[in-house]
Amino acid sequence: MFKCNNFNNILNCYHENKLSHAFLLETNDIEQCYKDVLELVKMINCSGKYSEECEECNLCHLIDLGNIPSLITIDPFGNNIKKEQILDMMERFKSKPIYSKYNTYIIRQCDYFNQHSANTLLKFLEEPEDDIIGFFITNNKMNVISTIRSRCQEWSMYYKEDLGNNYSDESISQFNDYLSNVCGKKDAFIYNQTEFKKLYEDRMDWVRFFTEILYYLTDVSCDQVTLGNNDVLGKMEKRKIIRIISKIEDILKYLKSNGNIELILDKFAIEMRNIYE
Ligand SMILES: [Zn+2]
Q1: C-alpha of residue 224 to centroid of ligand 1, in Å
Q2: pLDDT for res 155
Q3: Measured between alpha carbons, how far is 3 from 200 in angstroms, rounded to an integer?
Q4: 269 alpha carbon to ligand 1 midpoint, in Å?
Q5: What is the tens place of the pLDDT at every residue in 218-239?
Q6: Whole-prediction pTM value?
Q7: Do residues 251 and 224 make contact, with C-beta atoms less than 8 angstroms apart?
């Protein structure tokens, strides 16, 4: 089981044969995200019937031990991910994986690429081999060098901090109210400024509100909770819900960086409308 449910959506891509070759994962917890990536690597490579602690195959065991040639983890060396680290990985991945289906590299804190190391990696990203997958993990995708970012599929892997797993009926109905009104009604701006402003005057209240929606929709997107009675989201395709999730993350970033709340909410309403239509 993943700690962040959104990994199930990547796993589904694998089952549907739509697995990308490079993933940019933005997260609030790099270590936990790394553990989930390892879990995913086991699931898509396991030769036995993967279960939480697979004892049927040796591969899962080797991954736990961090002792398998087809899996390379790269951390920044000092203040940079160095060109030599990338060259070394590429050299090792010239040979096909033996025990596993894929050669996998995981780069933690991938915002530490410099121009040299990023350029070195480009060939890998531009002419991907079918049996090589890369995961780039960062706290802030905006800091990742654009040559890499633009070639990755972006995902958000957020970990619940002090929120429980259960949403009260009251909060679910509030999320639904808000999202339906912002998505589906023509006067979303006014709605933002009147109805909801009454409820949420404070910036931190908005941060909390959007953080809860973020977790809720992430759970919805991987079928962990049902949508309840929602006239707008209920009919929405999953890929659209995933797009909304990424917009909500942007909103949270703007809110936390002290932007003008009204402008941020209006921007959100516009983007939600675009996704909805
Ligand atoms: Zn296994």
Answers
A1: 24
A2: 92
A3: 30
A4: 45
A5: 888 877 666 666 666 677 788 8
A6: 0.71
A7: no
Q: Tell me the CA–centroid distance for residue 67 and ligand 1, in Å.
A: 14
Place of tokens 């899996």: 71
CA of 105 to the centre of ligand 1 (A): 19
- Report which residue type is found at 245: I
Ligand 1 centroid–CA 10 distance in Å is 18
Structure-block tokens of residue 107:
């780069």
Among 118, 99, 98, CA closest to 110: 118
Distance 19 CA to ligand 1 centre (A): 20
pLDDT tens digits along 166-197: 677 777 778 878 887 777 666 767 777 777 77
Kindly give the distance from the C-alpha atom of residue 78 to the centroid of ligand 1, in angstroms, as a whole number. 34
Long-range contacts of 237-240 (CB under 8 A, 24+ apart): 238/9, 240/275, 240/276
CA of 54 to the centre of ligand 1 (A): 5
Alpha carbons 120 and 208: distance in angstroms, whole number: 41
Of 32-41, 45-54, 144-153, give the lowest mean pLDDT range. Answer: 45-54
